[in-house]
Design a protein that fits this description.
The structure holds 2 protein chains of 2 kinds. By secondary structure, chain A is mostly helical. Chain A has a domain of 97 residues. Chain A is built from 17 helices and 3 strands. Chain A has a two-stranded antiparallel sheet with strand order 1-2. In chain A, helix 10 crosses helix 11, helix 12 packs antiparallel against helix 13 and helix 14 packs across helix 16. Chain B is of the alpha+beta class. Chain B has a single domain, classed as Glutaredoxin. Chain B is 30% helix and 22% strand. In chain B, helix 2 links the parallel strand 1 and strand 2. Chain B is built from 3 helices and 4 strands. In chain B, 35% of the residues are buried. Chain B is globular. Classes of the chains: A mainly alpha, B alpha+beta. At the A-B interface, helix 16, strand 1, helix 17 and strand 3 of A face strand 1, helix 2, strand 2, strand 3 and strand 4 of B. Strand 1 of chain A pairs antiparallel with strand 2 of chain B.
């Protein structure tokens, strides 16, 4: 075939492909994803959901859905079915067939998230650098790398990405990350501050573990000033946990007790600080004093009165919290129907 | 969703002065009423208000669901719990018993 004929043949083929596409604009991967979504809403068990996600990735490894499918497998098979090895094995094979750098990053990070229970031979810095070679990482990506690296005790990697995340924790970046959403200036400023506080807490912890305690404590203090506290008065970041553990290691027992005490009784992930609080408590009191009593006293000391409110029930009747809670023990649960 | 798992706790302790108030933060009335009926939930269910009157985010600073607060007989918030996993209701029951 001469070069000219070859080009002509190519043009015809391309024309054919375009006209086919016009008649039938169907992307099989997207079509399969649409039917998967339908089946997903019917799927009740972790086994069902795992089978759906694995079936999808077996047919379509390298699509824009690879990351979320991998994440579903790791969640349902790895955590719910308690088979992290199986989840790892499946997803790591899928990764071999993925070329899209965006999806490689997502799937790679999902796999690295398993390193608590499985030996993951991926290098977290390399996974981040591979995407970084294509485009700059976003705030969320830097923060995700930071948290994963911190879990793996790769402190230098954690510190590098926490530093980059802090730089990106600005109102402008937050707005740019969610172009479809309408936020007020106050909302954007508040969320940017929240990001900054979170990354500063991780940066401090990474620095502390690298032996740079002075800079680390400066970061913790900065995180404390930047961050907001939850309704029950503790930061909604791991700041008190990390700061408290660092203080404990430095022998600053009173400060450790204060931070870890608040975190243990009212933190979002309070139970993970309890053993360090006990250590601090014992360092201060020796074998004198009862730890459980101390915990109870801490709770009473930090507890604040609930704000009363009035909302409508589903029949439209106004109901005041205090009309139910006064003199009773009340569980106030915020939920949304799924 | 875990709200149905609170129903047995409510029935077990309501005579000792235990109340549950659940607030739908997303205001999905249709889904919520269906859910309440299907699961036979008998404790108090309310809906967040709109805009400036909303309390879930602005007053209680809830960022993720489900978020739960346990209030003692004097009206103090004594316990906070984020999320609800298998087995959490046993832990919650212990906390309720400490306050009853």
């Amino acid at each position: 075939m001469s070069r000219k004929t070859a080009i002509l043949a190519l043009v015809v083929l391309v024309g054919l492909a375009v006209s086919c596409a016009k008649q039938e604009p169907v992307d099989p991967a997207a079509e399969a994803f649409a039917s998967l979504r339908e089946a997903w809403s019917e799927a009740e068990t972790a086994e069902d959901k795992t089978a759906l996600a694995e079936g999808y990735l077996t047919s379509f490894a390298d699509t824009e859905y690879s990351g979320s499918m991998a994440s579903a497998i790791i969640y349902y098979r790895g955590h719910e079915m308690e088979d992290p090895e199986g989840a790892y094995e499946f997803v790591s094979k899928v990764l071999e067939n993925i070329e899209d750098p965006e999806q490689r990053f997502e799937v790679g990070m999902e796999l690295l998230g398993l390193s608590d229970s499985v030996e993951v031979p991926l290098d977290v810095a390399q996974v981040a650098n591979d995407l970084g070679a294509v485009r700059p990482l976003t705030y969320n990506e830097h923060q995700q790398v930071t948290e994963t690296a911190a879990d793996m005790e790769q402190w230098m990697v954690a510190e590098e990405h926490a530093g980059a995340a802090i730089e990106l924790a600005t109102p402008e970046t937050y707005r740019a990350d969610y172009p479809d959403r309408e936020f007020t200036d106050e909302e954007v400023a508040e969320r940017a501050q929240r990001r900054k506080a979170l990354s500063l807490a991780y940066d401090g912890w990474a620095l502390y573990n690298m032996g740079e305690s002075e800079t680390a404590f400066a970061r913790f203090t900065e995180a404390d000033a930047a961050g907001s506290v939850s309704y029950v008065g503790v930061p909604n970041t791991p700041l008190y946990k990390y700061w408290g553990r660092a203080a404990l290691s430095e022998g600053e027992v009173d400060q450790a007790i204060k931070l870890l005490g608040a975190e243990t009784v009212f933190g979002e992930d309070g139970s993970s600080s309890k053993s360090y609080l006990r250590e601090a408590f014992e360092a201060k009191n020796g074998d004198q004093g009862d730890f459980d009593e101390f915990l109870w006293a801490t709770r009473n000391e930090l507890a604040t009165p609930v704000d009363d409110f009035e909302l409508l029930d589903y029949e439209g009747n106004p109901v005041r919290l205090s009309s139910l809670s006064e003199g009773n023990v009340t569980l106030l649960a915020f939920w949304f129907p799924t | 969703m875990e709200l149905p798992r609170l129903q047995p706790l409510y029935e077990k302790y309501k005579d000792q002065g235990f109340e549950i108030v659940a607030v739908d933060g997303k205001r999905d009335t249709e889904r919520a009423t269906k859910f309440i009926e299907e699961n036979g939930l008998t404790y108090t269910m309310l809906e967040n208000a709109e805009d400036d009157a909303e309390i879930v985010g602005s007053v209680f600073k809830v960022r993720a669901y489900p978020s739960s607060f346990l209030i003692d007989r004097d009206g103090k918030v004594m316990y906070f719990h984020l999320g609800f996993e298998e087995g959490d209701e046993e832990h919650l029951e212990e906390e309720i018993l400490k306050l009853l």
